[in-house]
Amino acid sequence: MKTDVLIIGGGPAGIVTALSAENTYKGLKITVVRREKQVLVPCGIPYIFGTLPSPESDLIPDKVLTSKGIEIIVDEVADVDTSSKRVTLKSEEAIEYDKLVFATGSLPKVPPFAREKFENLFSIKKNIDYLTRLKKEIENSEEIVIIGGGFIGVEMSDEIAKRGKKVTIVEAMDHLLLQAFDDEFCVMAEDELRKRGVTIRTSATVKGFLGSNNRIDYVELTSGEKLRADLVIVCVGSYPNVELAKKAGLVIGYSGGIWVDEYLRTSVPDIFAVGDCAEKKDFFTREVTPVMLASIATCEARIAGANLYRLKAVRETKGTLGVFSTAVGDLVLGVAGLTEARARKEGFDVVVGESKTVDRHPGAIPDAHEVRAKLIFSKYSGVIMGAQLAGGKGVGEMINIAGVAIQKGMTAVEMDTLQIGTHPLVTPPPTAYPLITAAANAILKIFKEE
Q: CA distances (Å), 445 to each of 336, 413, 434, 438, 441, in order?
C-alpha cells in the first residue's frame, strides 16, 4: 500500500494533522494508523467517572476524518524504515509513505511502588475498555485513594467524590496543583475539594501497598500512616511515547521527547512529530518543559499539517506557553505563562497586578461569581509574563485572552487600554474587567517604584 501522508497516532494531534494536511494540500492520500478502535477525548477522561454517563460519551467520532476521505487503519506500527520510507504494521502489512508524522502521544508514569500488579490498582490510560473496568471498580468501591495532585488527580477526586465515595488524595508537594499555580490559588482548589468531602494529604509520599489475594487493602505512606483503600488510582503524570521513534533512529531531546524544529520537523527528512511525543521548549526560558496539553498538540498539528511539503506558514516560535484551566466544584481556575513563584525562581524581576470583581453585572445576577485575577509583569518593560484567574465558568475564556496577551508581548499599559465587549448576563462589568483592573494595579506599582 502507498500513501502520501502517513500519521502514526489517532489522538487530537494525529486527527488535526490529518485535517490540516487535507485542507492545505487537496488531493493527497492521507492515512492514519492507530492502535485504538475508538478514540477518547483525553481531557474528558476524568468526567467519565461522574459527569458523563459512560466512557462512550467521551469519544471522538471517526467521521471527523472519514468524511474528508482520510483513511483510518486500526493496527500498530511495528517498524519504520526511514531509508526506504516504509512502515510495517503488526499485521505485517507494509505502507510506503512520502511524509510521515509521529503523533504517538504519551504514556502514564508508573512509580516504582506501583509496578507490582494488583486487581484494584489503576492508572489513567487512553483505552476505553480499561477505563470501563476502572469505572466498574469505582462503582464497587467505597474508599478510594488517588496518588498525585496534578490536574488529573484533582479532577478525578472531584468527580468521584460527587458520587458519595470516600476519597483521599496524596500529593508529594506542599499543595495540590503546585506545579501550575501559586500557593493561594492551590489553596482555593484544596478548600473546594474539602467541601466535597475529599481528604487531602500533601507533603506526603507513598512507601508501598499492603494487601492480600492480589488486592490492595492499605496504602502505606513514608510517614507510617496507612490509608484504607478499596481502590487505588495513580495519576503522577505522563512521559513521551517515543520507543518507535528511537528505534527508527530519530534524535530524542533532553526532555525525552522527539527533537523537532520550529516547524515540527524531526532530525530525519520528511518525518515530523507533534503532540505529547514531541519535545517542548519553554516560552520564556527556552528550557525543555514537560507541558502536555491537547491545545498545544493541536496547535503543533496545524503547523505541521500546513508545512508538510512547503513552509507555507512562516512563523517565529518563542516556545511552548502552557495555558491551563480546570474546575473543582463550582470553582474554575486558569493559568497562562509563568506563575509569580516560577518567575522569581528563574530570576525575572517582576511586578504583580491583582484584582477582585464579579463575573456578571450587577453582582446580584443569580449565577454571578467572584473573580480573582493575578497578572505577572516584567518590572522594567511592563510586558505581561503570566496570569492566574479564579472564579466561575467565564475564567476558561478569560485565561485564553491572557494567553494571547502573553504571546503578543502586551504591556500593562496596553492591557489597561484594551477595548472589550461586555454584557450583564455573560461578562464582568466594563468598569472592573479583571484583566484590565489587574493591569492597572500593576501600573500603579511600577510607577510607585520608579
A: 22, 12, 17, 11, 7
